[in-house]
Design brief:
By secondary structure, the protein is of the alpha+beta class. It has three domains: 99 residues, RNA polymerase II/Efflux pump adaptor protein, barrel-sandwich hybrid domain (OB fold (Dihydrolipoamide Acetyltransferase, E2P), Beta Barrel), CATH 2.40.50; 62 residues, no CATH class; 210 residues, Chloramphenicol acetyltransferase-like domain (Chloramphenicol Acetyltransferase, 2-Layer Sandwich). It contains nine helices and 19 strands. It is elongated and about 80 Å long. The protein starts with a strand and ends in an 8-residue tail after the last helix. About 9% of the residues have low confidence. Belongs to the 2-oxoacid dehydrogenase family. Forms a 24-polypeptide structural core with octahedral symmetry.
Amino acid sequence: MSDTANIVMPLEQEGSKSVVRVWLKRVGDAVKRDEPIVELETDKVAVEVPAPADGVLASIALNEGEEAAPGATLGVLTLRVAAADRRLPAGTPANTQSVEAKWPAGSRPSEGEREARLSPLVKRLLSDHKLDAADVNGTGRDGRITHKDVEDFVARGKAMPAAKPAPAAIVGGRVPHDAMRRSIAEHMSRSVATAPHVTAVFEADFSAIAAHRTKHKDAYARSGAQLTYSAYIVRAAAEAMKVSPNVNARWHDDFLEVFEDANIGMGVALGDKGLIVPVIQRAQTLTLKETATKLTDLAERARKNALKPADVQAGTFTISNHGVSGSLVATPIIINQPQSAILGVGKLEKRVVVRTIGGADAMVIKPMAYVSLTIDHRVLDGHQTNAWLTRFVENLETWPLEDEQ
């Protein structure tokens, strides 16, 4: 039996590429099986790779900032059973126990230096718990703060530090691109260069679903599901695939791959960091309540940077609910390659519209939003695009759907 074990990059990844974000252990540190040992980052998700066995980190094959291909060896563990009677290589720290690293007196890094060393996951945890990085001792490599350090700090019931005044805004200067921003840029540029984008815009009356939501949202909340407008939008989009299946398809040079399952991704903004697109698998099989439950779970974990790779994989269609940040129309919304279409939903606002009431036209106030479908014109034409949007709008305006009665 081998006395070493490779730390291997997962074979499946979602995103254009993976980059080693931070090593959580240094060479010579002891690790336990399934303990996070290195953090990877793509344009879609940050993920921690666990140790495959108990042992000691013997070597690092890919350094921080280097690209990691699927199946690549990230590092090597010396298994603990073999390490007991073996001296570590020359130059390796003698201790093999995980100890709390503290900065020597007079050498504590500046606040800016500590911030630059934090992983996206740790930053999000600190923000969620309103903590200052300076109050948490790091046990990771070179004193880095790990997600476990933050969770242990919270579990010990430490009092939340008083809020500090926000630093003055820095005008000008250069902000280095992180791995996620670079990957998003590459993905968007490649999509525009690959697919001829065309966008159609319709208007939707949200009166029916607003009334339904008002009636049922409290009952959904008691069961742990937030009944948001997004749940209705996902359900209406999945049902609209029946009239235009090619919206849920993928272009290949020699054929069109049309999917039976509508795996619908919903973009979740991560502030200045970018966005991530968790996927609701087989959305066409879900009820409104099941959809709301899945959306609640995925959105919460996305904002905590706690999504697993499977949560962002296998998407066949994407929704951009850009209206939550105030825009009425965004066009074109860049297609999430290799998909063939993306739905945009603008800001919901009350507008004056004309309706026929009692045989006469009348001006009434309705909750309205512009909805758009941006398509890959190699896959879809205007007729198919408009047929899909027509059914989608009808689903919203005549809610509930037949199978939601």
